[in-house]
Design brief:
With 362 residues, the chain is mainly alpha-helical. It folds into 2 domains: 297 residues, no CATH class; 54 residues. Helix content is 62%, strand content 9%. The strands form 3 sheets. A 3-stranded antiparallel beta sheet has the order 4-1-5. A two-stranded antiparallel sheet has the order 2-3. The protein is globular and about 75 Å long. The relative contact order is 0.15.
Length: 362
């Protein structure tokens, strides 16, 4: 029998998910510490975080499986949870492959009184950078010998899975969502067979956007928490009570993880966590049929992704990418960047809710 979610059930769902996430994150953190599974940041400004346990998104899987065992009779919860678990398994595979070190990249510092060019970068006095391109690697030894640069560290770069593995890992959650046959109309349009590529691309894009934004303490979890809460409110004011449940799960998971992931983070979610949040958020937005507001609520991750793509296409040049690392590189503190990103997300969501309520409802 289909379970109808009333207000009491929604509160119970949120509280159970939050509490289980807190306890499972606490447990998984200690397991990861014992297993010595930790992060090795490639960004110079984050080298002090080396040793922080990663792959904390495994705790999300515990929470999701616990919740779905209680609320399996509710279809939106069941399908969203199924897609999140699929995304989590794919992200876990990516994390496990990433434990293998591909290479060690040198970090150099400009110790001369002048600007030093290496690769595509112009290093100012006392600035640091990773030596990544072939051109920079060829220039390194002469610059070291000339006393213009000093090597200050070597950073392990994780092994990147084969392209076919990455494609399967990122496409599979979207393919599974298509196979559930729950998304055939979207934003007032009957999609028909167009639903297949649209759903797959939407899930793929959301996974990558969340994965890209997951680079500072509490950044991704905070943004998805705000976006999920706002989407739940959007569903409420539009009378879509059943649509609140998937977003309540996402909101609770993010808040529970933030207990340990807020600055200074005691654990990182890794690809396991970002794949879960990305695939889950996309599934919830598509199932509840709120694509326009869903896109607005992810304005920050989408904007950051666009800027990174522009950098890779050589339209713009960033000292490092993505944008939040570039801002940190330029001297803005991590706390200010994260707070600003949260604030921008909240403002975008509030504007969207106000427009929806006063323009389309009243």
């Amino acid at each position: 029998m289909y379970l109808v979610m009333n207000t009491t059930n929604m509160v119970i769902l949120f509280l159970i998910t939050f509490v289980v996430t807190v306890f499972s994150t606490f447990f998984i953190r200690h397991v990861l510490i014992d297993a010595d599974i930790s992060d090795s940041p490639i960004v110079s400004e984050h080298r002090h975080k080396t040793g922080t346990p990663t792959m904390g998104g495994i705790s999300f899987l515990f929470a999701i499986l616990f919740v779905v065992s209680l609320f399996y009779k509710n279809l939106p919860i069941l399908i969203t949870s199924f897609i999140m678990v699929t995304g989590g398994v794919m992200g876990l595979l990516d994390d496990l492959l990433g434990l293998k070190v591909k290479e060690y990249q040198k970090v150099v510092k400009n110790i001369s009184p002048d600007v030093v060019q290496i690769g595509i970068l112009n290093l100012g006095v006392s600035e640091e950078a990773r030596v990544t391109t072939d051109k920079a690697k060829k220039q390194l030894e002469p610059l070291l010998a000339a006393g213009k640069l000093e090597q200050v560290a070597e950073i392990p770069i994780k092994y990147e899975p084969h392209e076919s593995v990455k494609i399967i890992a990122q496409f599979l959650p979207g393919i599974f969502l298509v196979l559930t046959s729950t998304v055939w109309t979207l934003g007032g349009f009957n999609l028909g067979l167009l639903a297949i590529p649209i759903v797959i691309i939407a899930v793929l894009g959301c996974i990558n956007a969340v994965n890209l934004i997951d680079g500072m303490d509490g950044l991704a979890s905070g943004i998805i928490a705000i976006a999920s809460f706002a989407c739940g409110v959007f569903c409420f004011i539009n009378g879509n009570m059943e649509g609140i449940a998937p977003f309540a799960i996402l909101f609770a998971i993010c808040l529970g993880f933030l207990v340990f992931n807020k600055y200074p983070a005691k654990i990182f979610m890794g690809d396991t966590g970002s794949f879960i949040l990305g695939s889950g958020f996309a599934a919830a937005v598509l199932i509840t049929n709120i694509p326009y507001f869903g896109l607005l609520s992810l304005a920050v991750p989408i904007g950051s992704t666009i800027i990174s793509l522009m950098h890779r296409a050589h339209i713009i040049t960033l000292p490092v990418e993505p944008l939040h690392h570039a801002l940190n590189y330029r001297g803005i503190s991590e706390v200010k960047i994260v707070s600003s990103y949260w604030l921008i997300t909240a403002i975008a969501c509030i504007i969207g809710l106000l427009i929806d309520y006063f323009v389309f409802i009243l």
